[in-house]
Protein: tRNA pseudouridine synthase
Amino acid sequence: MVFFLLMFELEKSALHSPTSMLVFQSPEKIYHYKIYNDTVLDPFHRLYAYHNLSKLNVSVMKEAAKYFVGQHDFSSFANKQRNDRVVNPVKNISRVDIIEKGPILQVEVEGSGFLYRQVRNMVHSTYNNLKMILGFKFYV
Structure:
């Protein structure tokens, strides 16, 4: 009985030590979203990238992506989760990069955490809004 109490006290005190608290601090997370930016889709990318039928103006997308950086309430970009867990919608986005790798545009979003389908909805709403506002200027 004494051994059990001793182990319990050790485990309980280990949870409150400064070194064990590092386990509970989440590091920055990076989310990758891919857009296949060519008229003909490579069949090997069919399941792994969103296909756009015409080439996008990447510089305009990079300019628009800057507005996501910072701490914002992203509740309008989240889908309802399957469970009823309450999640704080305020997230900190530290970086949004759009990298061209041949016909693939890789959107990298780095932040403290993400809501359910947040980045996917951010990219699609940016794409749809720029297409609607700029019309043909959005395409190369």
Observations:
- The beta strands are 29-37, 50-52, 70-73, 90-101, 104-111.
